[in-house]
Amino acid sequence: MDKWESFRGQFPVCDEYVYLNHAAVSPLPLLAKQKMDQYLEERTKHGAAHYPDVIWEMLTNGRNLGAQLLNTKPDQIFFVRSTSQGLGVAATGIPFEAGDNLVLVEKEFPANLRPWMPLKRRGVDVRLVPQRQGRVLIDDLAAAMDDRTRAVSVSFVQFLSGFRIDCAKVGELCRKHDALFVVDAIQGIGAFDLDVEACGVDFVSACSHKWMLGPEGAGLGYASPRALERIVPALEGWLAVENPFDFFDLEQPLKSTAARYEEGAYNSVGLAGMLGSLELLLSIGIDQLSERIIGLSDYVVEGLKTRGWQVHSPRKTKAEKSGIVLASKEGVDSEELGKRLKAEKIELSLRAGALRIAPHGYNTNEDLDRLLALLK
């Protein structure tokens, strides 16, 4: 059995479905379920008898795995409940003043827009740059920035078009203006390499339930040394301090690590599952996964084009490709087609009147052929 067959064997969902919906919610691999079951067994049999050692071990493992995934140090990793919650840490913690500005991208998923909107009430200029045929152009970001730009927040991969941005170029822009570079990474990490230190990224938030193949309610955050200096948590939880079990010392400092952004009780079951998924992904290798995913998405793009479908996802260069393919065909009722696909146990998303197809590394060309056979 080769590596990809073994990987596919982690997903019982394949017994019934052609699952091409990883840009929405992924199925869980067996290893994630195993880790969750182990934690539930521990809590069921022992309650808090082994607390906090069980949790601390899980957190340590999670920070190490997150650091491997993002090419950084474990002290720079923290845990989030959702992408929005993590981005909210940045939105409420960056010391914006009236007259400052923030640069965002229009038509991104609301998780990277809504957390920033309250800044308008504080007199912050929230600047939205356009998407051009699904792309976010570096020149448009540059044109929106000036000496009062305090942060730029963009998606690593656009949820609709699938465009993957050049984070290194954005990082250069942000350093030029001394602005923090914030990334909503949920549609990319787990499938594509994001070297946060090499790219000059300052802050990342991503829940695990898409390309990381983990559960909802558990995810990863990253904070650079610059972010740790500038982003002060608006909500200080009891676990945010250096010695959380010294309950009555309210003057003690916040942790010097990114764990200062963690508030209180963890979604421990979700974290256990996420750790299993990360172990699985890293055992294969993110570089190999990205090659596999691009190959699968290229395959379905060619199949769509030969059947008269228009592909809306930017695909001119390998660097801008992702695992998301958005396509439509004139005269096709996407809602009716969606019902037919669901009846055939083919899972994908309908977005903006188009099909959004999102295979992961355990999918095969044969999976995609089943889809394409219905799209002729």
What does this structure look like?
It is a single chain. With 376 residues, the chain is α/β, with parallel strands linked by helices. It folds into 2 domains: 3-20 and 286-373, Alpha-Beta Complex (Aspartate Aminotransferase, domain 1), CATH 3.90.1150; 36-283, Aspartate Aminotransferase, domain 2 (3-Layer(aba) Sandwich), CATH 3.40.640.10. It contains 12 helices and 13 strands. The protein has helices at residues 3-8, 30-46, 53-70, 83-93, 138-144, 167-176, 196-199, 225-230, 268-284, 286-306, 334-343, 365-373, and strands at residues 18-19, 77-80, 101-105, 125-129, 149-155, 180-184, 203-207, 219-223, 310-311, 325-328, 346-347, 349-351, 354-357. It has a 7-stranded mixed sheet with strand order 2-8-7-6-5-3-4, sandwiched between helices. It has a 4-stranded antiparallel sheet with strand order 9-10-13-12, with helices on one face. Strand 6, helix 7 and strand 7 form a beta-alpha-beta unit.
Which short descriptors sum up this protein?
alpha/beta; Aspartate Aminotransferase, domain 1; Aspartate Aminotransferase, domain 2; 2 domains; seven-stranded mixed beta sheet; four-stranded antiparallel beta sheet; 12 helices; globular
Straight-line N-to-C gap: 33 Å
Query: Largest sheet, order of strands side by side?
Result: 2-8-7-6-5-3-4
Could you state the CATH homologous superfamily of the largest domain? Type I PLP-dependent aspartate aminotransferase-like (Major domain)
Class by SSE composition: alpha/beta
Q: How many separate domains make up the residues?
A: 2
CATH class division of the largest domain: Alpha Beta
Mean pLDDT: 96
Order of helices and strands: HEHHEHEEHEHEHEEHHHEEHEEEH
Question: Which geometry do the CA atoms define?
Answer: globular
Share of residues in strands: 5-15%
CATH-defined fold name of the largest domain? Aspartate Aminotransferase, domain 2
Per DSSP E runs of 2 or more residues, the count of β-strands stands at 13
Radius of gyration: 21 Å
Judging by the overall fold, what is the CATH architecture of the largest domain? 3-Layer(aba) Sandwich
Largest sheet: 7 strands, mixed
Number of helices: 12
The low-confidence parts are: none
Kindly state the percentage of residues in helix.
Answer: 25-40%
